[in-house]
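Researcher: Good morning. I'm working through a list of sequences from a screen, and I'd like to move beyond sequence-only analysis. For each chain I'm collecting a predicted structure so we can compare shapes side by side. This is the next one on the list. No need for commentary yet; just the structure.
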Amino acid sequence: MQLLGIYNCLSSYLVVAAFLFACGVYGLMSRRTVIGMLISAELILAAASLNFMAFSRFLAPDPTLGRLFTLFIMAIAAAEAAIAVSILIAVYRNYKSIESDDLTDLQG
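Model: Good morning. Structure tokens for this chain:
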């Protein structure tokens, strides 16, 4: 029965969010393709959203503030994904590759 009450503990949410954040940072450091980096950035944003929701649920007197921040993060993530995919398509049309090492002439 103790396992069923794990959803009612702040530390369990923080552990999951820390795992998501660590996976995102590792993905940003190890991935060579732009799509892998984009997915890793989305994992980092999901970890931040989970933290906002967890702290809002357990510690905030007004829980709508955490939900508002989470909706804002979701909107930013959607805009980031749309812009990144459009840049990715433009880069692929010019360089015929999505490897980040092949894009060295883009450094300004």
